[in-house]
Request: fold
Amino acid sequence: MDLSDRRDVETEVYQPAEDSQLLAATTCERLNENDDESDADPPLVLEVGTGSGYVARRVDEETTARVIASDLNPHAVRQAREEGLETVRADLVSPFADEAFDAVLFNPPYLPTNPENEWDDWMERALSGGEDGRAVIDPFLENVGRVLAPDGVVYLLVSSLTGVDEVVERAGEEGFSAAAVADESFPFETLTVLELFR
Amino acid sequence: MKESLLDILRCPLDKHELELEDAEYGDDGEEVVGGDLVCTECGERYPVDDGIPNLLPPDMREETPA
Reply:
């Protein structure tokens, strides 16, 4: 499966697919399991690369968390805001305070892409993870630790096309332990949700 | 954006706090729909466009794929 198979008529904002549903369902389940009623404040959750806002909206509706949705793409943040979400146009986690979030969610662009085969539009930015599929995942892993609260966790969607072991190893270099908390197989890939914690 | 979002937003360049200037409020009088978020350290200004703060660093702000 390559990028052209995944490319829809939609050209500006990635619309929810199996990966979005798996990340949303898993995150809601984990947040609700860990919801400690003695906590005075509801958890603060950031979704990076929210796209249509589907995952952020489900977490907003199905958990007690306050959810912030961010994206690089101006069309995406507009769509997410129309969903009633608090939105920020941002490059990954760069404009957020240290230790701000109890959880950070990311369904990253992860399809390995031949450089000669790129479209240079917003949909390509939403899907392509560069030649190894990790062009966006790696800088995310380098920086996400800064904005996580001491007990904060990351929920990261990873495809077998990108390589779960490679992502776990990279996360380890940044001081994270990883647990696969959900996975689902499809004809061309297996999707895994990694929970990263310190 | 809600004004309370300022508590967790920082300048993407130097991570210092931001101050809201020239704020325009929506019909409910609470949501910030326009204005600038200004870095208290470096003075860089980040616009609030249609209620959405644009916290991209200046060199990425104009970037638009073809």
Observations:
- Residues 3 and 32 of chain B are 7 Å apart (CA to CA).
- Chain B has one domain: 3-63.
